[in-house]
Amino acid sequence: MPDGDTRNVLEVKNLQTVFGTRSGEVHAVNSVSFEVKPGELLGVVGESGSGKSVTMMSLIGLLPSPPAEVRQGEVLLEGEDLLKVTPARLRDVRGGEVGFIFQDPMTSLNPVFTVGYQIMEPLRRHMGLGKKQARARAVELLELVGIPGAAGRLGDFPHQFSGGMRQRVMIAIALACDPKVLIADEPTTALDVTIQAQILEIVERLRRELGMAIIWITHDLGVIAGIADRVLVMYGGQVVEQAPVHPLFNDPRHPYTRALLKTIPSVSGERAAKLQVIEGQPPILGAAPTACPFRSRCPLAFERCHAENPKREDVGPGHDVACFHPLAQTAAEETA
Ligand SMILES: Nc1ncnc2c1ncn2[C@@H]1O[C@H](COP(=O)(O)OP(=O)(O)OP(=O)(O)O)[C@@H](O)[C@H]1O
Ligand SMILES: [Mg+2]
Fold first, then answer.
1. Model-level pTM?
2. Same-domain check for residues 282 and 234
3. Are 244 and 322 within one domain?
4. How many C-beta atoms lie closer than 10 Å to residue 189's C-beta?
């Protein structure tokens, strides 16, 4: 694909993020590349510590440096490299062209300002709205995310809202400036299932209505199956597989993806019985990887996997995998 492909709203190329720690470097994100098209929902999955959050925070300069250092890569937002822009431009992008929602709204919302102020502030700063217009838009946004009696709640502080309502406020703030890309990092895992479903519905509707691209990070493959167009599977700070949602679930090629799919509880009555865990430990991230990060847990690993880190290779349309012997379709079918 040529540089700065305009069909992609966001292109991340060879991103590398390293933490300096007392016991040495931690290579948390290794050569991560992906694209997002306008209006597309990209799901990002992978177990705890696989680098999902660090990747997304690296994109918009949200990691404190030190200890973090984005050492290499390009983050092209409609062709503009966010790793090269001034701090002032980056602040404009955050909450402007790129909106984000994180898991815990209590840490993302400021407890000392009213919710109304927190929604109106970006509207005034990024969109140049006057006080009255910003107020009207804030009410509209709170209504959009399903907050009852929106106009009467602008003067309330975050602690006066329930967890689910705070999450909605976060979404309203993230959406305030009509972002081109919305990054949602496990925004629903702390919520109960009905509220999760409502929030997913809101996000899905907004994507349809506003055409924004969404990056949705989650542990929950069930959620991904329901809403994503494409899925990125991360392991040990790397992308190990990328595919449109259907092939990802029906024809997974990386042994880790296959193992991950087996951990989904079945929808029938035998949830516990069918639930499997992936044996072994996730890799301890340290120096830059020189071997496949999944090798110690992989049933198919052979010498080459211990000596070399496989690169992503195409195995189908929009489908690539970083494995020296990607599973054949038949192998995936066997386990279905
Ligand atoms: N400040 C830090 N110093 C050193 N290492 C860090 C720091 N922050 C994160 N890491 C490491 O970066 C790696 C990736 O972490 P990250 O938070 O991106 O994982 P994740 O995939 O988002 O996990 P989870 O699903 O639990 O949210 C982890 O191994 C973590 O230990
Ligand atoms: Mg995370």
1. 0.89
2. yes
3. yes
4. 14
